[in-house]
Amino acid sequence: MTGLTRRVLEARMRLPAAPPGAPGEEAMSESSGPLPEVVRDPRELRRRLDAARAHGARVAFVPTMGALHAGHLELVRHARSLADVVVVSIFVNPTQFGPREDLASYPRDLDGDLRLLAGVPADLVLAPSVEAVYPPGHATTVHVAGLTEGLCGAHRPGHFDGVATVVAKLFSMVGPCVAVFGRKDFQQLQVVRRMAADLDLPVTVIGRPTVREPDGLAMSSRNRYLTPEQRRRATALVEGLRAASSAFAAGQRDPAILQSLIRARLEGRVDGIDYVFVGDPETLRPYEGPVPRGRTALAAVAARIGRTRLIDNAELGTDDLGVPEDRPPGA
Ligand code: PAF
């Protein structure tokens, strides 16, 4: 019996764990517990997980590019509550970076990530090489039409093809019954949902609310690029979203006015705006005219501070700046 299978069986005998703590400093503390095991070879991972599944284990999956922060840990903690085995992938996926983007400088800290994951804990970390994911001769790309055309897709050509392709491949390697993503990357979440549905992948895709710093800045691995002065300016994004959220709560339904409220908070504080969008959260297209009665609106923004590109969003019409929690399967 492998260590993983033994842990699954032990976990099934245990009483439910104490409820997880709130994200923040405590959630970021490293544990002195055992580090999750790192598997480099996707075939070895599948072999290990098949053995656990043969004992009835449910597998949950959290794909990441590493440089983990409290937002990632919240996803892993949520995954933990849904399944017997939690797999986290750490793979900086080259195909989702444009030629002038930050692939080379993207933060990489596997040892630090493993220490953080030990505190959740995760069971297995898939950390494959680029060659293991994209072997010579690799020729298949997954393209999700429509949803990828606007917002980040319009400013990062090919980005979502890279995301959809690698997520499809990771789903195939891990075979999870549930996968957990953050809603900060809202367009990515919708693209992955569409891809999983269209390819009949037997996985439930869960979106979790954005985890924020105390001043509201959405947590992101790229926040670590910011200088202290840039970090102060970075709250302009959430301030814009809050302004739109308050106006929406007060009855404003004109997308142009809601967008102008966001732009007003950004101007003079960020160094460039890629887009400000207020529209349909399902189609990611603008509403024709005002936001229809009884409907929410996605407010989304991408802006540059120095050389760092930040994104954030909120679903207007929910009670706070966050978004309603997705229900876990079967709840
Ligand atoms: O959100 C990310 O970290 C990445 O886009 C993902 C989903 C791990 C695919 O590389």
Describe this structure in words.
This protein has twelve helices and nine strands. By secondary structure, the protein is an alpha/beta fold. The strands form two sheets. Strands 1-4-3-2-5-6 form a six-stranded parallel β-sheet, with helices on both faces. The longest helix is centred in the middle third of the chain and has 16 residues, at 159-174. It is globular and about 60 Å long. It starts with a helix and ends in a 15-residue tail after the last strand. The relative contact order is 0.12. The site of pantoate has 10 residues, from strand 2 and helix 8.
| Count of domains | 2
Share of residues in strands: 15-25%
Ligands present: pantoate
The major beta sheet can be summarized as: 6 strands, parallel
> What is the CATH C-level name of the largest domain?
Alpha Beta
The helix-and-strand class reads: alpha/beta
Q: Which outline best applies?
A: globular
Question: Which strands sit side by side, in order, in the main sheet?
Answer: 1-4-3-2-5-6
By CATH, the superfamily of the largest domain comes out as HUPs
Tell me the helix content: 25-40%
Cα radius of gyration in angstroms: 20 Å
In CATH, the topology of the largest domain is named Rossmann fold
CATH architecture of the largest domain: 3-Layer(aba) Sandwich
Distance between the termini: 32 Å
Task: Summarize the helix and strand pattern as letters.
Answer: HHEHEHEHEHHHEHEHHHEEE
On the 0 to 100 scale, the average pLDDT is 90
Count the beta strands.
9
- Ranges where pLDDT stays below 50 over 5 or more residues in a row are 12-27, 322-331
